[in-house]
């Protein structure tokens, strides 16, 4: 069996909202980045030590399957806690004897193409005759027409993305609507050729390259108090705490207790102890009147001018999350995000100390949620200054955004660009960095 990743063209009807650059290259959204990035828990491990463990694991897999080469694995030359893992060569695939097929949902398909196995909740249908240990072809139900548990393996539009080995039989997955979380299909071949990276959770976390950069742009240090306004799932929160070497204070907010529990669980896993997490809506995080007895450790809401650094990784349309085999976001949903982003940014400005740093980021590509928010903030808040978002690996803001050339050079946009490197072949992302004037206005 030989597959190659084709340029999928499934996208929603909101193409009017994306810049011309993307309209002319719409398949970019559904093509998998060829580099995987692992952020190492440097408080416990050496990045080169973990890189060598990954090389050894991939070498074992290559030997087992008769491969002659393994994906490249190396520590990033500048971002020293970041390991880069490349993809298998085009000629590498598993030639299995296929006994059936499995149909999975789009979100599961996206994850598989990024290196994940198939967990039971993502399975929509599985051939009736297959047993544990059998090999199956993996199809994605692109438009969501396959009914979960269906015996008929048909849907309006299904796409072959790989093959794998059945680990949980059909009866166990679907009987009495069983709620299982285990691996149902171990993926042996992906059309994306992205490897599956197996490692101990204490080593670190898989995190997109621009997301790793985002934490460095905020300039965290050990004697500061930081706020992560929309912290779930805690990847950036934990990175900030790690850079601060478990010193200072990182306060993480998210709206639901369940999400906060996940943040705290990740912190325990990485042995981070300088993080306080609260279930709170960040649009309501500012006290209207000064309360001199209020301590940050008491939790939100907070007094104005309370934090040295604030990260606002804002809720967004997430159009930059690649691959996305089918996107059905509506125009109305897209329009709603900028209003929320402005409200959150307003609170961030209120909570930031004079002289403090605010980083605004999204994982989307629209001008309305990125450069337009920056322009709005600069026009509304005379005490905000846009500065260069260093370290700088992205591209300048878009010309049609309304920002000046100098302003465009300060922000960094990760998007379609020439070259095949970990810095260019990434998810879509946007980062802007502000400094609040010492003269409070």
UniProtKB/TrEMBL annotation:
Keywords: Methyltransferase, RNA-binding, S-adenosyl-L-methionine, Transferase. S-adenosyl-L-methionine binds at residues 254, 281, 313. The active site is at residue 363. Gene3D superfamilies: PUA domain (2.30.130.10), Vaccinia Virus protein VP39 (3.40.50.150). GO terms for molecular function: RNA binding; RNA methyltransferase activity. The keyword Nucleus does not apply. InterPro entries: MeTrfase_RsmB-F_NOP2_cat, MeTrfase_RsmB-F_NOP2_dom, PUA, PUA-like_sf, PUA_sf, RCMT, RsmB/NOL1/NOP2-like_CS, SAM-dependent_MTases_sf. The keyword Methyltransferase applies. Pfam families: Methyltr_RsmB-F, PUA. GO terms for biological process: RNA methylation. Residues 130-437 form the SAM-dependent MTase RsmB/NOP-type domain. Belongs to the class I-like SAM-binding methyltransferase superfamily. RsmB/NOP family. This is SAM-dependent MTase RsmB/NOP-type domain-containing protein. It comes from Rhynocoris fuscipes. The lineage of its organism: Eukaryota, Metazoa, Ecdysozoa, Arthropoda, Hexapoda.
């Amino acid at each position: 069996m030989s597959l190659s990743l084709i340029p999928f063209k499934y996208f929603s009807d909101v193409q009017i909202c994306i810049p011309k650059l993307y309209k002319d290259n719409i398949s970019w959204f559904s093509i998998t980045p060829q580099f995987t990035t692992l952020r190492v828990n440097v408080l416990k491990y050496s990045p080169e030590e973990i890189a060598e463990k990954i090389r050894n694991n991939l070498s074992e897999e290559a030997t087992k399957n008769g491969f002659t080469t393994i994906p490249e694995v190396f520590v990033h030359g500048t971002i020293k806690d970041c390991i880069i893992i490349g993809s298998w060569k085009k000629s590498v695939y598993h030639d299995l004897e296929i006994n059936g097929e499995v149909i999975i949902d789009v979100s599961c398909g996206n994850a598989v193409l990024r290196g994940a196995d198939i967990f039971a909740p993502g399975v929509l249908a599985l051939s009736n005759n297959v047993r544990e240990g059998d090999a199956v072809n993996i199809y994605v139900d692109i438009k969501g027409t396959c009914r979960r548990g269906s015996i008929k393996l048909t849907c309006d539009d299904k796409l072959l993305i790989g093959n794998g080995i059945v680990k949980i039989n059909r009866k166990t997955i679907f009987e009495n609507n069983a709620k299982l979380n285990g691996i149902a299909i171990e993926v042996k071949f992906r059309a994306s050729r992205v490897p599956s990276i197996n490692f101990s959770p204490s080593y670190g976390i898989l995190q997109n390259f621009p997301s790793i950069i985002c934490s460095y742009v905020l300039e965290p240090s050990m004697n500061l108090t930081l706020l992560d306004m929309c912290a779930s799932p805690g990847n950036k929160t934990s990175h900030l705490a790690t850079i601060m070497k478990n010193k200072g204070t990182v306060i993480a907010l998210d709206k639901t207790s369940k999400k906060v529990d996940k943040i705290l669980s990740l912190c325990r896993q990485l042995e981070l102890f300088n993080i306080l997490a609260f279930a709170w809506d960040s649009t309501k995080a500012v006290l209207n009147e000064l309360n001199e007895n209020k301590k940050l450790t008491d939790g939100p809401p907070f007094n104005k001018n309370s934090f040295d650094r604030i990260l606002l990784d804002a809720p967004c349309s997430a159009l930059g999350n690649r691959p996305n085999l089918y996107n059905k976001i509506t125009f109305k949903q897209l329009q709603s995000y900028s209003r929320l982003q402005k409200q959150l940014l307003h609170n961030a400005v209120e909570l930031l100390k004079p002289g403090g740093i605010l980083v605004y980021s999204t994982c989307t590509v629209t001008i309305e949620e990125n450069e337009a928010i920056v322009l709005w903030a600069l026009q509304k808040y005379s005490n905000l200054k846009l500065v260069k978002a260093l370290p700088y690996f992205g591209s300048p803001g878009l010309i049609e955004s309304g920002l000046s050339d100098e302003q465009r050079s300060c922000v960094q946009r990760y998007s379609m660009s020439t070259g095949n490197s970990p810095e260019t072949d990434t998810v879509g992302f946007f980062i802007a960095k502000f400094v609040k004037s010492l003269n409070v206005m």
